[in-house]
Give the backbone structure.
Amino acid sequence: MFRSAPPAPSGRRRLLDAARALTTPLLPEDFLTLVDPLWSTSSLRGRVVARRRETDRAVSVTIEPGRAWAGHRAGQYVGVGVDVDGVRYRRSYSLSGPEGSEHLTVTVQEVPGGVVSTRLVRDLPIGTIVELEQASGTFTLPEPLPSKLLFVTAGSGITPVMSMLRTLDRRGTVPDTVLVHSARTPEDTIFGAELAGLAARHPSLRVVTRHSAVTGRLDPASVDAAVPDRAGRAIYACGPAGLLDALTEAWDGVVAERFTPPARAAEGTGGTVDLGGSAVEVAPGQSLLEAGEAAGRIMPSGCRMGICFGCVLPLREGRVRDLRTGEAHGEPGDLVQTCVNSACGTARIDLP
């Protein structure tokens, strides 16, 4: 399931040991990564090797990962760091390729005003080196597989489910499965032709496609109308927060993957925050991460929704305000999630 770097043969290991002795205090890897950044086993990078347009607003980007890549499970996401105008931005994207692939693939839909999604969708050159994080997330296929599955997706929420379907297709064992997918129009339907092909190859897979510009937004009632035996199926859902909220309120046991930020309940007070020794002005309602990146600070990040804890940094002075609840909190030494907290006056936060 997972791909890992093979152990070095004994001859190569002896050569590396000899090289290490000659290059100390630096490591041979320090020199090799100057030639090929993917050689590093201490920092994970990848090289863009292909881009495929899925719709006018979405592309699939295929990346050759470095030696440290540990593989992924279908349905997980990966953190990607891309340089735009000299600033390193990190975002998390669902992996759309099947488990066991030599390369990893993310499918990205352009977000209006989105710095990284615009870069990936419009003009990321082949050969670009990007920063990667190991795959994360619990929205994965259960083992053993349920006898009946129902996937409910909307928009780019199809991407992790596509990884699951491609994995099942590769295994050649697709259980009784229904996919109900909503896109705004036929032209906006990511993987439309491939989904039809999968359904044609696997009689156990039924694909129901809706177009919200014609039929309105997907809701529990319309899913029930399309899937009369819904109650007997294991349900996995991914899409906008409104759809997921409606499904989880209507039915028990829904496994949901959220990829949109939670609503912000508070604007905060803003303030001046010392980020790694540089003063950054944080506007009311602006997250610490947004303010830091806008000021050119390189900061860790992940899902940007307060879920993965990939953005936590130590608070040294002052307090912060949780944008989800409006609560001011924090004591020196606390780890704060910079993606969902704003300034609450003056504060100091360490950067790695």
About this structure: The chain has nine helices and 17 strands. Residues 1-9 have pLDDT under 50 and may be disordered. The radius of gyration is 22 Å. The longest strand covers residues 45-55.
